[in-house]
Write a structure and sequence with these properties.
- The chain is α/β, with parallel strands linked by helices.
- The chain has a domain of 213 residues: 2-enoyl-CoA Hydratase, Chain A, domain 1, CATH 3.90.226.
- Helix content is 23%, strand content 17%.
- The chain has nine helices and twelve strands.
- Strands 3-4-5-8-9 form a five-stranded mixed β-sheet, sandwiched between helices. Strands 2-1-11-10 form a four-stranded antiparallel β-sheet, with helices on one face.
- The longest helix is centred in the N-terminal third of the chain and has 15 residues.
Length: 356
């Protein structure tokens, strides 16, 4: 059986590519067995339980979530409970992970695990007011243009790293980046904005990132969870970002200063994009930390016919640093929050103007 991995699109959880591993049906579909099998699957497959549980204020571990003698979820089950009540208990148990890649699905129902209340004001309409003629959004997932006050500085906003239309699996939308960069070729710098970017496909992300890459660099290391033990992991896989080259072999990338702008709602593939571009010397990272959801996700069925999504992948940067549950932070001096206007964008423009 093949497992295909996919990245999060928050909060849609669109099924970008089939990635299911089907289990046989267990004849015992009692509420107790349904909850226990769900807990056990996460114990065996979720690669980041330790990182996800370290910020939990109620339970010390995933084991404690189920077996705690005073408040474990096993105590919330009774044999005569309704499916509605069982769904609620299962969903609440998964919420203890606060993982954007985790969700529970039943006919007509969905419950996500992510409950982080951290919110940043980001208003694309406000961004448009900064741009000449309110910018150009003729290409899917992109808004681009030049700043009214600084016409020598370009701006590109990327909303997603995927085409949400399930019929468009070839991700042709990403090719528009070449047209966009051609229109901004004579700028002195670009502000590249992925605030609120909910993720997408890694190959689409790398296709776009290559257009801002001057030097080939490894940027991410991953391993897949293969068993219940902490160290039950697959062989290491390394991802590399490479400069884009035309057929003639000439470089075709924007290698003048780039200011990359992120916030807490930059998720999953947007975070891979951030790690990739942070390897490039002409890129400055500003804004606020990203979400902290790096694993791909897989969908798996439960013994009662429901299914869930789960994070099976440990992801680090090339120094072995985990950002799961924390996010990638700009250098301290470049962290900016929005209080009244779009101070993050104001500061990014300032950095771009002064870039050398």
């Amino acid at each position: 059986m093949k497992i295909k991995f996919k990245f999060l699109i928050l909060p849609l959880f669109a099924l970008l590519s089939s990635c299911q591993l089907f289990l046989g049906q267990d004849p015992n579909n009692s509420p107790e067995e349904v909850l226990k099998s769900l807990w056990s699957d996460f114990n065996n497959i979720h690669a980041n339980l330790d990182f996800r549980m370290c910020s939990n204020t109620k339970y010390n571990s995933w084991y404690d979530v189920y077996y705690n003698a005073q408040s474990g979820y096993a105590l919330k089950i009774n044999p005569n409970m309704s499916e509605e009540s069982l769904f609620t208990v299962c969903a609440n148990m998964l919420k203890e992970l606060n993982d954007p890649h985790v969700g529970l699905f039943a006919p007509g129902k969905y419950a996500g695990s992510y409950y982080d209340s951290y919110h940043e004001d980001f208003n694309l309409s406000k961004v448009k007011s900064y741009l000449m003629e309110n910018g150009n959004n003729e290409y899917k997932n992109f808004l681009y243009g030049r700043f009214l006050t600084e016409p020598d500085i370009g701006y590109i906003y990327i909303a997603l790293f995927t085409d949400e239309n399930p019929k468009q699996n070839n991700q042709e939308w990403g090719r528009a980046i070449d047209i966009i960069l051609n229109s901004l070729a004579n700028t002195k710098a670009i502000v590249l904005d992925v605030r609120g970017n909910r993720g997408g496909e890694v190959y689409a992300m790398e296709y776009i990132a290559a257009r801002f890459t001057s030097e080939q660099k490894d940027y991410i290391k991953t391993r897949i969870k293969t068993g219940p033990g902490t160290n039950d992991l697959s062989a290491l896989k390394i991802y590399t970002i490479r400069p884009y080259k035309t057929i003639s072999g000439n470089l075709s990338a924007y290698t003048k200063p780039v200011v990359l702008l992120t916030n807490r709602n930059s998720v999953s593939a947007a975070e891979w994009f951030t790690l990739a571009l942070r390897t490039q010397s002409h890129v400055t990272h500003t804004g606020t930390p990203t979400c902290g959801a790096f694993s791909s996700r897989i969908d798996r069925p439960m013994i009662n016919g429901w299914f869930y999504s789960i994070s099976p992948e440990k992801v680090t940067d090339m120094d072995g640093i985990y950002y799961e549950g924390i996010g990638i932070s700009p250098d301290e001096k470049h962290i900016r929050t929005n209080k009244t206007g779009d101070e993050q964008l104001d500061y990014a423009i300032e950095l771009a103007v002064n870039a050398e």
